[in-house]
């Protein structure tokens, strides 16, 4: 049968040569590239089943994002560009860990559980990042797709959010955009250009942006984008992969965690800079003030900037839409305060991981979600999209309202609503800064971050740490939360939490307080309490 054939090809071409257990986590499977060949083949098989179950095209992205070059990973993308639901993560884990002869039974149980009609054509889009291991792993996925009669389309190198975009475009028959790289740049840059209404720059805004592409797939993509932006935005690209190593002392994760600029970019006080991660689904901005002190403009700052701007547009266009913001426990306490008390926008807190934020953001008419690490986007509900479009075309409202509704409509098109996207977020931030006439410092002045520190702790078993309340409190091991509460009480503006990482074998500690020294000390002491 077809399922037995899939097992035979596995044995012959993509055998499982070791029995390390691997789990489909927050960002799919992610580990050393050498351990992934059989996993990729099996994800090819699974993607076909998912495609048949959905009667839609499914995406398979090969990347390990901000991890070191030696790692790789794989993530499935559902019909409209979302993550696969938890039950499919469970299937993925089961299929990845079975023996080669166990493959048919594992596939069969998924087919039964999901009542899949295997005569439906299976269509799978595949793309990869720039890692040396990616081409052969992409081939393994395609072999898996072919092994059970599916069809795959290989997009070659794409950023993760570009593949999400392709999947969504295809499954909405073009309503979201055209499923080609051209289509992607066209949609974003056409909207961006419409939003750049002033030929002169306003206030202290400058059209120069320095982009650290983490030596990843964002580099060639942003070069293609630049060709379509003309003088509207001049991107100076460093860490473009021609010299440095992927994610090594550069990229969004390095800049965020180390709170310093990347290697390969000599930052001067007048420069506005941005760092992508290795697959360009995260972005953080940074700059040096006149005293040459480093300042990070992270996901929280982006979320605040974006929410403030959207709030103004919604109001100005005479619409009533409920706008909300979604954060995680990592959001700086000052940002949450500012958004709640000054901007008066409702804030929800969810566990780490894009799917949690995305899901919660769908409950608002306009849901802005960002992780502090720079992953985020904005979701517009169907109702909101229709209301905005209608208002932007209305002739029976004051012209000013109609104009702002039109701006809002164009803003929707700059945003990749399928997932956080460094390129799209970059264009969105630049749009807002240009319209406000702001440079980095003006933006940064919206509120002052509380000093904070993140550390990671190697433990025997990270699973002993269990959390509740969107990871803000621990329920296990016994006594840990009481110990944290006691420590936190000793610091002005102190806040700290502990959670097991979903991507590394460590426990993470976050702490913030009134001064950097206090934040460092609190993180260190809480770390000790974890042992
Ligand atoms: C993954 C998540 C990211 C999260 C990070 C946390 C997705 C697509 N990515 O990279 O959102 O911030 O994990 O890692 O969900 P941690 O669990 O190791 O702290
Ligand atoms: Zn990433």
Automatic annotation (TrEMBL):
List, alphabetically, the InterPro entries matched: A-D-PHexomutase_a/b/a-I, A-D-PHexomutase_a/b/a-I/II/III, A-D-PHexomutase_C, A-D-PHexomutase_C_sf, A-D-PHexomutase_CS, AMG1_II, AMG1_III, PAGM
> Any stretches that span the bilayer, and where are they?
none
Name the SUPFAM superfamilies on file: Phosphoglucomutase, C-terminal domain, Phosphoglucomutase, first 3 domains
Task: Provide the leader sequence positions.
Answer: none
Q: Which reaction does it catalyse?
A: N-acetyl-alpha-D-glucosamine 1-phosphate = N-acetyl-D-glucosamine 6-phosphate
Q: Name the PROSITE patterns for this protein.
A: PGM_PMM
Q: Say if the entry is tagged with keyword Endoplasmic reticulum.
A: no
Q: Which Gene3D superfamilies match?
A: Alpha-D-Glucose-1,6-Bisphosphate, subunit A, domain 3, Alpha-D-phosphohexomutase, C-terminal domain
A molecular function GO annotation: phosphoacetylglucosamine mutase activity
**Alphabetical keyword list:** Acetylation, Carbohydrate metabolism, Isomerase, Magnesium, Metal-binding, Phosphoprotein
Span of domain Alpha-D-phosphohexomutase C-terminal: 473-525
Chain sites annotated for binding substrate? 371-373, 499-503, 508
The segment(s) forming the Phosphoacetylglucosamine mutase AMG1 domain are: 178-284, 298-438
Please, one GO biological process term?
Answer: carbohydrate metabolic process
Q: List its EC numbers.
A: 5.4.2.3
The family annotation for this protein states: Belongs to the phosphohexose mutase family.
Name this polypeptide is given: Phosphoacetylglucosamine mutase
């Amino acid at each position: 049968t077809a399922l037995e054939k899939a097992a035979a090809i596995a044995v012959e071409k993509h055998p499982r040569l070791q029995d390390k257990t691997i789990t489909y986590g927050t960002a799919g499977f992610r580990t050393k590239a050498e351990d992934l060949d059989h996993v990729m083949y099996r994800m090819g098989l699974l993607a076909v089943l998912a495609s048949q179950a959905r009667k839609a095209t499914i995406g398979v992205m090969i990347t390990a994002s901000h991890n070191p070059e030696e790692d790789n990973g794989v993530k499935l993308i559902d019909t409209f560009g979302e993550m696969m639901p938890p039950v499919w993560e469970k299937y993925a884990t089961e299929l990845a860990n079975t023996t080669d002869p166990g493959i048919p039974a594992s596939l069969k149980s998924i087919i039964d559980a999901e009542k899949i009609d295997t005569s439906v054509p299976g269509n799978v889009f595949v793309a990869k990042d720039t890692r040396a291991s990616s081409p052969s792993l992409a081939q393994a996925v395609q072999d898996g797709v072919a092994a059970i009669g599916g069809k795959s389309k290989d997009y070659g190198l794409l950023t993760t959010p570009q593949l999400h975009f392709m999947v969504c475009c295809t499954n909405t028959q073009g309503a979201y955009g055209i499923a080609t790289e051209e289509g992607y740049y066209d949609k974003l840059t056409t909207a961006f250009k419409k939003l750049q209404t002033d030929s002169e720059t306003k206030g202290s805004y400058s059209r120069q942006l320095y982009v650290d592409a983490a030596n990843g797939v964002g580099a060639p993509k942003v070069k293609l984008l630049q060709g379509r932006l003309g003088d509207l935005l001049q991107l100076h690209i460093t860490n473009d992969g021609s010299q440095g190593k992927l994610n090594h002392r550069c990229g969004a994760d390095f800049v965020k965690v180390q709170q310093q600029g990347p290697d390969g970019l000599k930052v001067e006080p007048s420069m506005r800079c941005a760092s992508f991660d290795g697959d360009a689904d995260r972005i953080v901005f940074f700059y040096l003030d006149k005293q040459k002190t480093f300042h990070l403009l992270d996901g929280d700052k982006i979320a605040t900037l974006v929410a403030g701007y959207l709030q103004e547009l919604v109001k100005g266009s005479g619409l009533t839409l409920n706008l909300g913001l979604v954060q995680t426990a990592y959001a700086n306490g000052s940002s949450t305060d500012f958004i709640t008390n000054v901007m008066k926008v409702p804030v929800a807190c969810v566990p780490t991981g894009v799917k949690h934020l995305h899901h919660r953001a769908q409950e608002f008419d306009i849901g802005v979600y960002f992780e502090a690490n720079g992953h985020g986007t904005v979701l517009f509900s169907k109702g909101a999209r229709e209301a905005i479009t209608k208002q932007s075309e209305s002739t029976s409202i004051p012209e000013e309202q109609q104009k702002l509704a039109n701006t809002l409509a164009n803003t929707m098109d700059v945003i990749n609503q399928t997932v956080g996207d460094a390129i799209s977020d970059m264009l969105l931030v630049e749009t807002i800064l240009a319209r406000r006439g702001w440079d980095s410092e003006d933006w940064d002045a919206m509120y002052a971050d509380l000093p904070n520190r993140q550390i990671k702790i190697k433990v025997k078993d990270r699973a002993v740490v269990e959390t509740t309340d969107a990871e803000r409190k621990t329920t296990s091991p016994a006594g840990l939360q009481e110990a944290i509460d006691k420590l936190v009480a000793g610091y002005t503006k102190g806040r700290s939490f502990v959670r097991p990482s979903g991507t590394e074998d460590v426990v993470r500690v976050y702490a913030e307080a009134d001064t950097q020294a206090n934040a460092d000390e609190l993180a260190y002491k809480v770390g000790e309490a974890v042992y």
